[in-house]
Amino acid sequence: MSILQLSSSSLSYPNVLSISPRKSLSSSPKSPRTIRCSLEGTTVTERKVSATTEPLLLRAVKGEVVDRPPVWLMRQAGRYMKSYQTLCEKYPSFRDRSENADLVVEISLQPWKVFKPDGVILFSDILTPLSGMNIPFDIVKGKGPIIFNPPQSAADVNQVREFVPEESVPYVGEALKRLRNDVGNEAAVLGFVGAPFTLSSYVIEGGSSKNFTQIKKLAFSQPKILHALLQKFTTSMITYIRYQADSGAQAVQIFDSWATELSPVDFEEFSLPYLKQIVEAVKQTHPNLPLILYASGSGGLLERLARTGVDVVSLDWTVDMAEGRDRLGRNIAVQGNVDPGVLFGSKEFITSRIHDTVKKAGRDKHILNLGHGIKVGTPEENVAHFFEVAQGIRY
């Protein structure tokens, strides 16, 4: 028998989880439903979420006892959805879509209306603050981000301004307020920012990169210039996280996507101190705001990611979940980490991988997610199946 085989009867891992058939995703989220499942001989009845109940995701991060892992997917609002593709035909520019509060809210809610994830993440981009920092850029279809005048000298870095979100991106604050109002406590509203090293990588390289030659050249030949830029991004991201939280974000994810291009010793110089500075500063003003850290290909840096002080480390799919938990310890929450490519597989295969991940993560402090963003071309019906299986799990 395979790891998991759905049937009309409940199927369990011993003392870990069980899954029972549930109503389709098209049923009203407000209609009460009761699912009974076995948990070490105990019958558990699912309770309808009330307007005053804190979102499942936040309770799980705190280590409270929950019936199942909360679930959301990175890039859950985006190009794989037909509704998003239709919107793109009318608004072909990514920046037009991501810098208009009405469109940001509409796009952010598209997956919420269909799948009811436990996290509703703001539709935006980590580069959105750049214009407000005097760094002209664009995001071009088929090419990705383009930085028009990559800084190369100390004088160039001096021209970079600290970010004032109220002035530069008021649509972000407005969108978060509206999302919080629309979603209520049925899910957690998530904001996000780019980490200083990753933002600096895009800026110095002039866009995306395969080899990261320019930023490493700067780091290893003129480190003072890079440190000055990193500090400006650090100060600005502290301000941006606080702004997002004050506007309605209930958790914020920090993306340090390119930090894993650094060796461990260079990570400790060019990324770790700035991440720690962000966490420490935000916790001074927003001590209860969960901070999530994601870095793709982070297997060699896991212990160092935990040293940043974040509440959640998001694992990419190249790390075995059980090994990741052992390396990080149980005091820190984890997120992830199903391979996004799994969503191109059969429904049975998707189901087995979900349960394998949840089993390895254990009962406490786990947010079910992918190990990276959803890939373009992912069948929407497979995403629906992912959520249906995930939401049917019971510990």
What's a quick, concise take on this entry?
The protein is of the alpha/beta class and 395 residues long. It contains 16 helices and 14 strands.
Explain what the structure shows.
Residues 70-79, 190-206 form the Uroporphyrinogen decarboxylase (URO-D) domain. This is Uroporphyrinogen decarboxylase. It is found in: Plastid, Chloroplast. InterPro entries: UROD/MetE-like_sf, Uroporphyrinogen_deCO2ase_HemE, Uroporphyrinogen_deCOase. GO terms for molecular function: uroporphyrinogen decarboxylase activity. This protein has 395 residues and is an alpha/beta fold. It contains 16 helices and 14 strands. It has helices at 56-62, 82-90, 94-98, 101-115, 154-158, 165-168, 170-183, 196-205, 213-221, 223-247, 264-270, 272-285, 302-306, 321-328, 347-361, 380-392, and strands at 11-13, 17-19, 36-39, 42-45, 119-121, 137-140, 144-147, 188-194, 251-255, 291-294, 312-314, 333-338, 366-370, 393-394. The strands form four sheets. The protein has a seven-stranded parallel sheet. A three-stranded antiparallel sheet has the order 1-2-14. Helix 7 (170-183) packs across helix 10 (223-247). The longest helix has 25 residues, at 223-247. The protein is globular.
Keywords:
alpha/beta; 395 residues; 42% helix; three-stranded antiparallel β-sheet; globular
For the biggest β-sheet, the strand order reads: 5-8-9-10-11-12-13
The description of the largest β-sheet is: 7 strands, parallel
The level of helicity is 40-55%
One letter per element, helices H and strands E, the order comes to: EEEEHHHHEEEHHHEHHHEHHEHEHEHEHE
Radius of gyration: 21 Å
Q: Low-confidence parts lasting 5 or more residues at pLDDT below 50?
A: 1-16, 19-51
Helical/strand content category:
alpha/beta
Query: Which band does the percent of strand residues land in?
Result: 5-15%
* Helical stretch tally: 16
What is the mean pLDDT? Answer: 89
Shape: globular
Question: What is the distance, rounded to the nearest whole angstrom, between the alpha carbons of the first and last residues?
Answer: 21 Å
User: Care to count the β-strands?
Assistant: 14
GO molecular function: uroporphyrinogen decarboxylase activity
Subunit structure: Homodimer.
Domain Uroporphyrinogen decarboxylase (URO-D): 70-79, 190-206
Pathway: Porphyrin-containing compound metabolism; chlorophyll biosynthesis; Porphyrin-containing compound metabolism; protoporphyrin-IX biosynthesis; coproporphyrinogen-III from 5-aminolevulinate: step 4/4
